[in-house]
Predict the 3D structure of the following.
Amino acid sequence: MGKGLEPRSDKAPYLERRRKKVREEIERNRRGEFVVPTWVLVVALIAVIAGWAALILLP
């Protein structure tokens, strides 16, 4: 049998773990433990630095 024809029982534990992880994250956010992802902070920092550089270098 091809791989696509096998039952998806092997995916069940993954989906259960994923759902549990999402549920736990939602509960943390509702308690006020939300943390801004690092990539968002990096993008904000780069935008601020680029803005300052534009103000200094372009006039």
Summary: The first helix runs from residue 12 to 30. The mean pLDDT is 84.
